[in-house]
Amino acid sequence: MARKRIQAGMRLPGWAWLALCVLAPLVLLNGAVAFLGETQVPLLSLSFLPEKAQALGAYTQHRAACLLEGHPPLEPLVTEAERRHRLPPGLLQALVQVESEARVHRISPAGAMGPGQLMPGTARMLKVEDPFEPVTALDGSARYLARQLARFDDVRLAVAAYNAGPGAVGSQVPRNGETEFYVAKVLTAYARLRPPPAPAARSAVTARPVPSAPPPSSNRSSARPPAEHARPRPR
C-alpha cells in the first residue's frame, strides 16, 4: 500500500512533462554558452536563441582544431590588421579589449563570437568562416570597422555603428541604453592605447645670426692725427 502511494506521488501531470521538455533544451543551450563562451547568460533566457545555437556550432567545429595547437598572442595580430586596413593605431585593439577582453573563445549572451564579437550574420557577410580563429576573425573585424570609418568619417560614429549597426547610427551616437556606454568605453581604451602624437618638426631653415658691426680699427696710421694747439709767437 505504501509503495503504491509513493509511485502515485512521483507521477507528474502532462503539463509538467511538457514544460520539462521545453525548458531542458533552453537551459542546456544557455548553460553551454555561459560555460564554453566564458560569459553570463540567464539559463531561462529566450533572447537570440538561433544566434547562440549557431555560435555553439561554430565553437564546436573550431575547438577540435585548436585544442592541440593553441593560438598566438593577439596583440601583434591586431597591430597587423590595423595596418592592413589603415585603421588608426590602437583603435582595433581598444575595441577588442572592450568586446571580449581579448578572449578568443568568448561568446556573448547575444551569440556574438570571438575576439571582435562578430554576430553570425555579420561573420557570414564578411566571409569569416571561423570567427574563433584569431587571424581571420580580427581581419573581419578590422574590415568591418574600416567600412564604418569610411562611411561616417568619425571615430565615435564608426564605433557606434560597429556595436549597433550602421542603420541605427545617424549624425550622433544612438542612445539605446547600451551603445552610448559602449562607445565611451572604447574611446577611453583608445586614448590609453593609441601611440602618443609625434613632436612638431623643427623648421629646416635656421635663422642666420645678424653680423655685428666690426670693432673700430686700432691702426693709428689710418687714424686722423689730433689737431695741435697753436703756440704763441715770441715777441
From TrEMBL:
Residues 200-210 have a biased composition (Low complexity). Coiled coil: none annotated. Pfam families: SLT. Residues 226-235 have a biased composition (Basic and acidic residues). Gene3D superfamilies: 1.10.530.10. It comes from the Bacteria. InterPro entries: Lysozyme-like_dom_sf (IPR023346), Transglycosylase_SLT_dom_1 (IPR008258). Residues 78-180 form the Transglycosylase SLT domain. SUPFAM superfamilies: Lysozyme-like. Residues 195-235 are annotated as: Disordered. Belongs to the transglycosylase Slt family. This is Lytic transglycosylase domain-containing protein. It comes from Stigmatella ashevillensis.
